Amino acid sequence: xxxxxxxxxxxxxxxxxxxxxxxxxxxxxxxxxxxxxxxxxxxxxxxxxxxxxxxxxxxxxxxxxxxxxxxxxxxxxxxxxxxxxxxxxxxxxxxxxxxxxxxxxxxxxxxxxxxxxxxxxxxxxxxxxxxxxxxxxxxxxxxxxxxxxxxxxxxxxxxxxxxxxxxxxxxxxxxxxxxxxxxxxxxxxxxxxxxxxxxxxxxxxxxxxxxxxxxxxxxxxxxxxxxxxxxxxxxxxxxxxxxxxxxxxxxxxxxxxxxxxxxxxxxxxxxxxxxxxxxxxxxxxxxxxxxxxxxxxxxxxxxxxxxxxxxxxxxxxxxxxxxxxxxxxxxxx
Length: 333
Description:
It is built from 12 helices and 18 strands. It is α+β, with helices and mostly antiparallel strands.
């Protein structure tokens, strides 16, 4: 690493950002959200900004600069990256860090360049990118260097990606911009249509976490939800069930399943046989949707397991690459 240089691996996700520092491990985990005043000065970042969402006066903006896994607002993304890099301790003194950022496998060269440029402007000495399925597979502990097939499905806030990896390379992959955010939108749409109840993204996410599920639960769970009545404009509360939410998000879950199936369909037969033996690994925040592993397993006939720390898999994998870049250099950089 050198005496003074620092190396940071960053999972710059649509919903959450995770920072790994070589030699220290995970040093920061915050929502990818920032609050700015009318003069574009930072008021809050991460958890503090998320608590402000939907509760700020007109002159304050609460912004999510990442959409579908890519930078949607370059200037705001740069400010946020600068904050996260500094907060993680990567910019102490005159020495600037080297940064490796996870990006979706399906993004364009222009979108890749934007991530690198934003990282440099945020204070990185050098910046590189790594495809998130590869980083997630490494972080989840899959044996990517073997001449055997390993399948990773990384479901974040903005993208869902499925990839088959062998000998430190991605053999086949597919990325769709349908993931956690679309689950939230499906919940918002359902409540609006069924109950004429308007709720925000924060409430929708709470519903997803508490009673969201992809496969029927053993016991139906209930939750009280508060929002605004679209008929009379007054506050209103309704009680919803886990079964309602399962049906509300079914289309989104089916799209993710179709992505997995389409990758399996174009996987070489020998690697497909390996996947039947070893199963599919889930990572990303979306992997925490209850019974998603059961749903995918039941529909594909393949064993599905969830990474030990799905939220950190990309950052952990990118961190391992930085710490062992001789081993990974030919396939990553």
